[in-house]
């Protein structure tokens, strides 16, 4: 009897131990799964108060959610030879050889009949500044108003096709109708590109359109937008492919472009061989001259250096400006002591020229260029180098030399946010 009780007690203890072990195993498994889930969630880096989760899709039905859509203005003549324009967002390049553009129009539009009969049309590409004209051309019909007279735009007869283009638009493309397709609500017109005309002001040094200078207007969701900043050249971003999962970083969204440029500005010391155009340099100089200045003295003078020999000479002698060997240009910001007048003794010219220099750096970032501040003043040996190489007059004191070019992508912006540097009162 005692032996039987003893065996029962041993059996009960064994069962209890087994239950405890199983429970611990389950707890461990749950903890591991929880840890893995936590790690997975951390890897998403969701920095938003929103309950929305990336990659969780919601069906919204059949909608034209393709972005960006172009905001083209199509030019045509009616039977009486009256020039007309209409706005088209259902358009784009559809073939490379021969280069062709497809434009879709509803039968109700005036241009539909014009293009069908004249077998010609022009595609006019607007800048963002022309949004009001694009909107007007899309809101009214050529049957009711003469859009050129109402807008003040200038019609010009095409050089190669029987269709007008808009003189004020930065890019105009003459197209010859080759075929069309009735698709349902729209007829798609396929036009062979016969000639492209571009304003010289938006061409870069290579003779190609500088998209930043053009700043084309785009359409989406019943609204017009400007084009975003330069991101990367074709093929460059391939170097960033690492096989790791992609997770969108919603924390790096900015309220406007100005803040985005400020936070993405970086000191660029590595440049490509791509040339920088005179128009781009003038854009930077205009930004520099928009800086604040004490008593509006504007005590600055800007020297633009593009000669390879001079850039190399400065790079050879200035200890922290070796990137000039790669840079395609440089802007030397100088203080003009005559303009500074009696304020020069108080050093206001340094503050004013520093503000101008920062504007130049931000402007470079905003148009896809790279730049870096290299000091001349207050180092006597460095200012002497710049004065001697550029032959500066005595009244011009060089504050800095700013090398400029297209960045290779090696230099990255730095996060300098430190709440400890802030003292609230």
Characterize the structure shown.
The structure is a single chain. The chain has 11 helices and 17 strands. The protein has 425 residues and is α+β, with helices and mostly antiparallel strands. It has 2 domains: 69-220, Pnp Oxidase, Chain A (Roll); 260-405, NADH Oxidase. Strand 4 and strand 5 (99-105) form a beta hairpin. The longest helix has 43 residues, at 2-44.
Summarize the entry for a quick read.
With 425 residues, this protein is of the alpha+beta class.
SSE order and pairing:
Elements lengths: L1 H43 L24 E2 L1 E6 L5 E6 L2 E6 L2 E7 L4 H9 L1 E6 L5 H9 L7 H5 L3 E3 L6 E3 L4 E12 L4 E12 L12 H4 L3 E3 L2 E3 L31 H8 L13 H11 L11 E6 L2 H10 L11 E8 H4 L7 H19 L3 E2 L2 E2 L4 H11 L5 E10 L20
Helix pairs in contact: 6-10, 7-10, 8-11
CATH class of the largest domain: Mainly Beta
User: What helical percentage do the residues reach?
Assistant: 25-40%
Number of helices: 11
Determine the N-to-C terminus distance. 85 Å
How much is the average pLDDT? 88
Radius of gyration, Cα only, in angstroms? 32 Å
Strand order of the largest sheet: 3-2-6-9-10-5-4
The CATH superfamily of the largest domain turns out to be Electron Transport, Fmn-binding Protein, Chain A
Low-confidence stretches: 28-51
Total strand segments: 17
Q: Mind describing the biggest β-sheet?
A: 7 strands, antiparallel
Q: H/E order of the elements?
A: HEEEEEHEHHEEEEHEEHHEHEHHEEHE
CATH topology term of the largest domain: Pnp Oxidase, Chain A
Number of domains: 2
Share in β-strands: 15-25%
General form = globular
């Amino acid at each position: 009897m005692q032996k039987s009780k003893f065996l029962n007690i041993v059996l009960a203890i064994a069962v209890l131990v087994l239950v405890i072990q199983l429970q611990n195993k389950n707890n461990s498994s749950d903890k591991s799964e929880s840890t893995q889930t936590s790690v997975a969630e951390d890897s998403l880096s969701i920095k938003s108060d929103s309950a929305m989760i990336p990659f969780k899709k919601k069906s919204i039905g059949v909608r034209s959610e393709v972005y960006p859509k172009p905001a083209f203005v199509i030019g045509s003549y009616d039977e009486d030879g009256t020039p007309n324009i209409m706005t088209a967002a259902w358009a784009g390049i559809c073939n490379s050889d021969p280069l062709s553009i497809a434009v879709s129009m509803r039968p109700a539009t005036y241009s539909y009949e014009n293009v069908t009969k004249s077998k010609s049309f022009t595609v006019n590409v607007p800048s963002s500044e022309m949004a009001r004209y694009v909107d007007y051309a899309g809101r009214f019909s050529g049957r009711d108003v003469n859009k050129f007279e109402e807008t003040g735009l200038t019609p010009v007869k095409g050089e190669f096709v029987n269709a007008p283009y808009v003189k004020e638009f930065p890019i105009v493309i003459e197209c010859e109708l080759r075929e069309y397709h009735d698709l349902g609500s729209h007829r798609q017109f396929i036009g062979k590109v016969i000639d492209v005309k571009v304003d010289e002001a938006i061409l870069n040094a290579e003779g190609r359109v500088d998209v930043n200078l053009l700043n084309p207007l785009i359409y989406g969701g019943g609204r017009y937008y400007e084009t975003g900043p330069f991101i990367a050249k074709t093929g460059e971003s391939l170097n960033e492919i690492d096989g790791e999962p992609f997770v969108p970083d919603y924390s790096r969204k900015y309220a406007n472009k100005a803040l985005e440029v400020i936070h993405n500005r970086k000191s660029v010391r590595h440049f490509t061989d791509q040339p920088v155009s005179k128009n781009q340099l003038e854009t930077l100089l205009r930004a520099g001259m928009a800086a604040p200045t004490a008593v509006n003295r504007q005590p600055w003078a800007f020297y633009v250096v593009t000669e390879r020999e001079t850039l190399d000479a400065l790079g050879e002698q200035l200890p922290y400006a070796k990137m000039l060997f790669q840079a395609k240009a440089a802007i030397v910001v100088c203080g003009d002591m005559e303009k500074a007048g009696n304020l020069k003794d108080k050093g206001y010219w340094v503050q004013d020229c520093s503000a101008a220099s920062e504007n130049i750096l931000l402007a470079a970032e905003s148009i896809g260029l790279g730049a870096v501040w290299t000091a001349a003043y207050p180092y006597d040996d460095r200012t002497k180098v710049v004065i001697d190489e550029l032959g500066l007059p005595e009244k011009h004191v060089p504050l800095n030399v700013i090398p400029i070019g297209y960045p290779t992508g090696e230099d990255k912006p730095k996060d300098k946010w430190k709440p400890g540097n802030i003292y609230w009162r």
